[in-house]
Each structure stands twice: as structure tokens, then as C-alpha cells.
């Protein structure tokens, strides 16, 4: 059976195996399971930092699983794993389903993992149906999407898209998190050394030129409250909000907590606190978000006023320009706050900004969005409601994903499914087996529809 | 020559050797010198955490120096080192000069070090003069006064005074600072293991009963701006302000920075920031101080809203009751701040307090204060000003010192000398050789006067 020979009704009837998808997903979570939050066997979060031993184990499992499905495996010099199920034609690039197997240090079982596992399930389903595609279909696991251990998110898809230089990634050092603290605090590993350590430093160049794709589809939990609170089942992702990541240093003066009056202090941590409060005010006023995830105060002694504080700042908004406006206003305000702290002794704090990452707002590709939307309508068509199309909505992504970078080189779009309370980056992150299967069925159909569209 | 046979004029003429004191002090700073701030050979700070290898080296030097002065050495089970120069009478406890040789992770060359070195110099001066005392005179180096590595300050004098149980100290784990991070982050040492490691776990019980004292005098830099800004040379310390140290935890919820609207967050770090801003407001309104020296946000990832923050809080004030009032008000206010953050999702932050240390306000002993005051007047009497007594002032200590604990068991007082800009707990902490010598001459005379008073 060949995709281009199916009827529209046959395409719309395609579904994944819900039980097998859930079983495989939780099987893969044995490597790096995290904090327990319930009594069930799968009621834990995940702690699987990029290029950790746990990540190595799940990568090995992924490769073996894809080999069993007769896929060809490519590992590039960022450790990205591309598994391709060949199509009828071998002269064209494959259509990919992709996401990531790494997690936050206190993450859950669905962010990224569902995306890769939906690809595994889609290929298993095709295999058992004997469904042949015109072009190949691949599944890709992108390295360090989270940016938790190595502090640039989506770095490996960024290098593949040639938007980030390889040298930056290979030299990037791990940062301390609850999971990476032991090595990060004493002898931080670089991405290159970490890749070598777990045997995933491939020889193939990391580039869309060396490992081309026809398109990239990604299934992900929404990580927000819109679908779940509206009782909807599928989000057709049309765009990704803009965001920028900064590292800031506030430099004041170490001094004694017991003997230094407030007016004699240049307390970098006090200045930071005022900055964080202000950041929320400014972001809120423009419909944006501003967040601090990392803060380090030095020297770190109960009775010394911290003279140096460094912190991360993450600003996001629906438009690239809005993020730039928030940055502009905060630069002014932070300078003002710093200048006030220590002014009494003529040694005010000062603040330094470094832009670590800049991701402008992204619009996905119409062809891919169309395939996802048609598939979503088809998959929810048997739901017991009058207007089944109301279960599907167009949606913007608040988070960055590897699809942001693939979209710069190949047609791309994404599918969202609801998660409980809109919660993610948390051990209790949860997506029901039904919702996982709905999303995976949509991506299976989307890939088939895209293949038919390409070779119509 | 015996102290009790000296004339008042002979006592008033006693002076230390300024050059030798400066030389010894900087010699001792070769172990654990810290951040360089100037071109001079001694223009560095200190980084000599308690029970580090550098601390071991300076302890070994101290013991050898005191042995050369024919002192008897006792090391107790907290590693406190007592060096006693015997007096004429051997049936009475010695009068002690004491302070500490450990420093902050980014500390200076005078805090604590000047106190111990002034004792060394006082004994050298007595030795070369052939001056005999009625009771013995000792110098004590107290372990971990700073509380920087092991987070209870003055812990070893506290145990000596039987105000803190030995088990608490022996089990106390080091905390991460810029200097202790490597071990503290992976396998934190306890005080007991650290004492063993550097061979300073003595067998003598740490108690004022086993190692009695007649009195305790301590010379210290002011660590504040009063003396230096008034052009005064000696502070006669009459009291020490009250303070309390707490560790607080704010518990919110880890969640994604990109997809979680502010009203859906229980951001523990944002709550912390508001708390720190509020703490200064409340403390200021009551003439107290509130400071945060340590903050840790978990999980520590750029794109995860921190669900847990722990921080230290140091509240100080001139009266014990005032500190209690600030605490009471902050407990209420912090609960309010926590309750607001996360209220929108019915999962507000909460805050937990642990009192680590409580040091009520202390009044020093009249006899000791009198000896210090008489000595201070005598030492500054040759200054080229009309009213030399105006160079001396009574003063309250803002910082805690080992003298707080010794005062609970034996007559105690302290001497302050000015330091540049009132700065301490900072590499640029500085006290001129003249001021160091003035303070050391005062403590030399004070000990002699106290000896004469005891045996008059």
C-alpha cells in the first residue's frame, strides 16, 4: 500500500495504537525518572539532562528501536540522531517527525518525549500496516533542546539550521542545576566533552545540507492552559512567540551585614530583588513575560552583603518588537535601580547585560499547517460532540521548540495537545494516554498527507 | 619586673612594636591570601575558610610562634588553640587575648587576624621587656568565628561557653561559598571531619570548665564608619547589638517560563524578591538591619520558573526586643507576599522559617571596660591634639564576636580601631599599621591593668 494510492477516507481513518504508544513512552522514561508525585508506576517526573548517562541509555534504546523498524541511522557531530524509514524514492529527503528526549532537571514525562515517541509509534503503525511512503519518513531526536544543562536551548537544531556556529556549542559549558551540580560546580564539562563521554559525537556535519529534510513536524504538549481550560483536544500551531535570553551581572560591594548601614551598602542582591519586581511590572504592561530562572549571589555568606549577583532573564512576547521594547525599558530601569544602591557612598551598583539567545517570532509554513489542520479535523471527527471542529483551534506557541530552527530551512509546523493544568517543566506534568494518542494520530496523518502533497 | 610592681606611668608608657606587628600580621597572611586590589605586596584580601588547608598552615605557624615564646599549648575538641604564657602564680586562670584566624571567602587581612596577632605581639613585647604577670596571659584562636564555611558564627566560643552543644558543631556541614564550593557541592564535610582532616581535633573538652579564663579581651577593626568618619582612634566597646540568623524556604511551583502567564505562577523567586525589598523597609523603620547573604533558587534553569528558593536572613538591632519585633512583622508580611503569589491558581507559595542562631544584645563587663578605657586614654595621650580623650569613644558593636560568648562566662570587653571606609568582609578591608599598633598597645596595657586589678 502506497500513501499516494490511499483514498482521502483511508487517510482520515489512520490512527496510532494508543496502548503501545503509552507503553513505549513510559518504557523510555525508566532512564532518568525523577521526583515521585503519586502512587502509580508512572507517577514520577523526569530528570534526564542532555548528554547524561540517562540520556545515553534512552538514546541507545531509541536507536535500537528504530533499527528494528529497518531505519537508517545518522548521528551528527551534535549527537542529533536521525532515523529514516526509506520511501519508494531514494533521491529525495525524508519528511521528519522530531523533538527531544532530554528534560529539565525537574521535568516531566511528556515535554519532548511525546514528540519523539509519537514518531516511533507512527513508524511502527506504518510498518504493521505495510504502508509505503513516496519519500522516506524519519524521526529525529535533537540534542539539548531544553538548554537546562548547556544553557542555550534548541542549540542543536540551531546548528543544523546553520543559525548557531558549531564552535559555540562544542565549547559551551554546563551550568549548575539540581542534577548537574556535582560536575558543574567543580569541573564543568563542555558539550563536546560530554558528547564524547557518552559516545555520541558523530562524524557527520551538523547541517541541513548534510542531513536534509523535506519537512519537520513536531507534536508537543501545550505547556499552557488554553486547550485544557477550553476542553479542546488539538492545537494547530501557526506561530511561536519571540523571546530573548540574557545573563545579567549586578556588581556592588561585599561588606559586613552587621556593621554596614543601609545607606552605606551597594547590595547587589537587594538591587537584583528590585529589578525582578520591576521586570514583571514592565513585561505585564506590554502583554509580555519576564522570568528569572537562575540567580547566583557571591560570595555567599550569611553575614556578608553580596557584592556580585548574576542572573538569567527570559523575556517573551507575541511580537519581536514587543520583546525589544520590554528590554529597552528594563535596561533604563535597571540602570536606575543600580545607581540608587550605593549612591550614598559614591560607589553605586552597576549592571551588565549579555544577550545569550535571540529568537524572533516565527510563522510556520502554510502547507504544513494545512496538513496538520486537515488531520486534526479527521482525528477528532468521531468525538461525541455536535461540532467536532470546535475541538481544534489555531494556537501560538509560548515556548521555543526545535521547530523554530527547522522552520528557517524547511516547511515546518507543530501540533499541541492539552496537558493537565497547563503545567510543564514540573514533575507532575501530565498528558492523558488519549490525548497522547490523538496527537500521534494527527502527526501520522500529517506526514502521510504531506507525502501525498509532495508527490501528487 | 612584675606587673603589680609597675607605676601607673610605667603602665601608661607600654607600647607594642608597630613594625614587628605589621610584619607578623602580613607574614601570617601568606596562607590564604585572596583577591588582589593594589600593587603593594600586601594589597590583597584573604580567603582562609575555617579548617581549610590554609587555616591549617596558619595554625601551625601560630603554635610554633607561641611555643617559641615558651607558651603552653592546648587544642580542644573544636580546634580552639589556647597558648598560655605562665605567670608568677600557677593556681589561677590566665587573662586571654583572643580572636580568630579564619576569614570570609572574600575577606580582608584584619578582621580577626589583627586580634590574634595583637596577642602575639603583646606577648613578644612582654617577653623582650622581661615583664612578668601575676596570673598567666594567653592568646586564643577561636575556630570558625566567621560562620562562612560552617554556617554558625562564633560556634566554637559558643561551645566553650556551653551555650551550643558539641554535637551540633561536630555534625555541622559546610555550605557552598566561592571558596568551599568544590567539596560543599558534592560531598560537604562536617566540622568534625574537617577538624580531623587538618589534625586539629584535640582531645581536651571544649568548655570554660576545662580551659578556664580570668577574662577575655579582643581587639578588632570597627567594620563600620563611626571611628573613621569622626577621625577617632579607639573605640571602647561597651556592648554588642542583638542579632538573629534564619534560613527561610519559599515553596512555589516549577513551571515553564514561556507558557505560564504571571497569574498562573507560584514563582518562589519573585516572592523572595518582594520579601527582600520588604525586609529592608521594615528593618529601616525600626532602626535595625536586615540582610540576605545566601540565596539558592531551584531547579536553576533559564526557562523554568523556580519552584523553591532558600535564603539566609540576618536581622540585627541595638536591642533584643527590636530584633524580635522586626521578625514578627516580617513573618506576617512574608506570609502575605507568599499567599499572593500563586493565588490565581489556588496554589499559593508558602514560606518556612528556621532560626539558626540567636544572639541577644550583650553588655560587656565594667572592670574590663574600665581597663580598656584607661589604656586607650594613655595610648592616645601623646597625639598632637588638644583634647586627646576626644580620640576615644564608647561604642556598640554591630557585628558578633567570640567575645559575645566569652562574656557569658568571664569578664570581657573589646577594643575597636578604625578601618578604611568602614569596609570589611571585603578584600580591600584595611587598617593602617599605626591604627593596628594603637589597638595592640591598648590591649597590652589592658591586660596588664587587669592583672594588676586582680592581684592588687
UniProtKB/TrEMBL annotation, chains A, B:
Database matches in CDD domains: M20_bAS (cd03884)
Keyword annotations of the record: Hydrolase
InterPro entries (alphabetical): Amidase_Cbmase, Bact_exopeptidase_dim_dom, Peptidase_M20, Peptidase_M20_dimer
Domain Peptidase M20 dimerisation: 243-336
Gene3D superfamilies assigned: 3.30.70.360, Zn peptidases
Coiled-coil regions listed: none
One MF term in the entry's GO annotations: hydrolase activity, acting on carbon-nitrogen (but not peptide) bonds, in linear amidines
Similarity comment text for this entry: Belongs to the peptidase M20A family.
Entry protein name: Peptidase M20 dimerisation domain-containing protein
Species for this entry: Penicillium cinerascens
